[in-house]
Amino acid sequence: MINLLRVEGVSRSFGDRRALTDVSFDVPAGRMTGFVGANGAGKTTTMRIILGVLAPDSGTVTWRGAPLTRQARRRFGYLPEERGLYPKMSVRDQLVYLGRLHGLTAEQARANTTDLVDRVGLTERAGDLVETLSLGNQQRAQIAAALVHDPDVLVLDEPFSGLDPAAVDTLVTVLRERAAAGVPVLFSSHQLDVVERLCDDLVVIAGGAVRAAGPRDELRAAYTQPRYELVVDGDLGWLRDQPGTTLVDLDGARAVFDLAPGHDDQRVLHAALDRGPVRAFRPVAPSLAEIFRELTQ
Amino acid sequence: MTTFAAVRLVAAREIRVKLRDKTFLISTLFFLLFAAGSAILPALLAGGPTTVAVSTAADADALRQAGLDVRPVADDATAERLVRDGDVDAAVVAGPRVLALDERPDDVVRALSTEPPVRLLDPDALDPLAAFLVPFAFAMTFFFTSQLFGVQIAQSVTEEKQTRIVEILVAAVPVRALLAGKVIAGGVLALGQIALIVAVALTGMRIADGGGGILPLLGPALGWFVPFFVIGFVMLAALWAVAGALASRQEDIAGVSMPVQLAVMLPFFAVLFLNDNPLAMRILSYVPFSAPTAMPLRLFTGDAAGWEPVLSLLVLLAATAGCLAVGARLYEGALLRTNGRVTLRRAWRDREPIG
């Protein structure tokens, strides 16, 4: 039985507005799948459908090859876009309660709560009412609430928004651990640098349709243009006249340029070496932000 | 985990939170003090046996036997002065004549006279005071409890919506388990509070040694009041939960719950004002919203036949089942719509299918 979460041909409308059109992608076990898209692209709607909070008009979500049941979903961990915990309950009571609602025994729930509260750095505040915590600490409690029942699958909507850098690092460590233990992790974010750093796979959604999905490195390779960075000791003004090159950026001794098809990058390197020492020469991979811009244009 | 286990968890949380809520604890304490006070105060105010100053030894014995507080004095003038000064309630002087300030001291007069024997033909007939107080107490109990705990159920539903924790809950347990848990918790707390208040009131009466006599009379009506109360409460609680689900913020609850409040208030006043009109009471005792107060009342006054409470309870049960079914659908339809007030029609028709 393979731990694969699969979204297949999911469509959903709200009244006349079509929110999702034939959305399909996989969230494989043991991998962190980043879900990126502009505001209103359909990330939250997709996640709510996965969690069964919303029903699709058509299409299915399967887990381990079978349509999702409530019993299976109870083993999911969910961080909704709009955060919320009971304001007048202590962090500990709240986590124990949510753990038990997700099917843990009282002892398990208490043990997991103690561990998690420690992991997210809330041990000292565990007995405090949620409403007395700072927003950052509420966010930590919220993340603990998604993890308290050792979920089989994690679906996190913008888990990093509102976190300080230290909390982001903690969360990244925790998520990586869960992924390494074989849990499929799907997380959305509009902070593309975080996604770039963190995800193994990527799903790009725009206007309610998936524009690209697959391993991050494959996507990057597919969208990599033949672009290079060259650093020398002298001046690189001669690059303008080098056949096949188009300058993207020139700053005296450093230049970034594109190479037209059919031209050999090594010829450019030789040309540079003929003029003096070369300090750096390397292909430039586009950042996720650039790929994203291209995909969603 | 079964739905039943989920219901139990939800109900247990509601109860635990409520038992730690200061407002709830203070209001309960207030009710208890009020119950104890109203049981004990009348006896305290009555202030013990009448004191009577007596100048003749012959009368003193008769008065003592009647349980009065006898103060022998030397002469009639002293007796009169004690009465005028307010040191005693009355005096018996030579003659014998009875002296008092502004009110005829019946107990003193009775002690000095011979009464003809009296035979009561209907010794169990109701004390008119009890006949007035008991219906009032039943109606008040149901009215205040269903209102108080109903609002709390609605608030707790809205809180989950407002804080958006509802999405996590709905992803984990069936929506109906949430609804059932809240209704059950409200019922347990309401009954618990009433039981506590009744216990305190009865203890108070026993201490004051005055009102124990009404309890045997109340027995059968009280026995019926419990099932009527429980089922009627569940019916209203389901409606309150719907009101809470329709609101998006705590401030909306008052407006949204107006129909439910009327469904509690109108029967309350109808029973209060029409309780000596047999036809009206007969009708009210079958209308589901007023049955929980009207039927126990008719049983108390003894003008309901044995089969009537059974029939009325069945009607109430059917109405409650209907309210629960309709309420559960509306609750499901409204719970996840978090942007603004939800109309009843929208909650019913465009019920958001939950996957």
Can you put this structure into words, describing what you see?
The complex is a heterodimer of chains A (297) and B (355). Chain A has helices spanning 43-51, 70-73, 91-101, 106-119, 135-147, 165-180, 192-198, 216-223, 265-275, 288-296, and strands at 5-14, 17-27, 32-36, 58-63, 66-67, 76-79, 153-157, 185-188, 201-206, 209-215, 227-232, 245-251, 254-259, 278-283. Chain A has two domains: 5-221, P-loop containing nucleotide triphosphate hydrolases (Rossmann fold, 3-Layer(aba) Sandwich); 225-296, Alpha-Beta Plaits, CATH 3.30.70. The relative contact order of chain A is 0.14. Chain A is elongated and about 75 Å long. In chain A, the strands form three sheets. A six-stranded mixed beta sheet of chain A has the order 6-7-8-3-9-10, sandwiched between helices. Chain A has a four-stranded antiparallel beta sheet with strand order 2-1-4-5, with helices on one face. The model of chain A has no long low-confidence stretch (mean pLDDT 88). Chain A is of the alpha/beta class. By secondary structure, chain B is mainly alpha-helical. Chain B folds into two domains: 3-41 and 126-349, no CATH class; 51-104, no CATH class. Chain B has helices at 3-19, 22-46, 57-65, 76-85, 106-112, 128-162, 165-172, 175-208, 215-246, 253-256, 258-273, 278-284, 291-301, 308-335, 344-349, and strands spanning 51-54, 69-72, 90-93, 97-100. A four-stranded mixed beta sheet of chain B has the order 2-1-3-4, sandwiched between helices. In chain B, strand 3 and strand 4 form a beta hairpin. In chain B, helix 6 (128-162) packs antiparallel against helix 8 and helix 8 packs antiparallel against helix 9. The longest helix of chain B is centred in the middle third of the chain and has 35 residues, at 128-162. Chain B is elongated, with a radius of gyration of 28 Å. The A-B interface holds A 48-49, 51-56, 61, 68, 70, 73-74, 76, 78, 80, 82-89, 93, 97-98, 100-103, 145-146 and B 1, 6, 9-10, 13, 16-17, 21, 159-160, 162-174, 336, 338, 352-355.
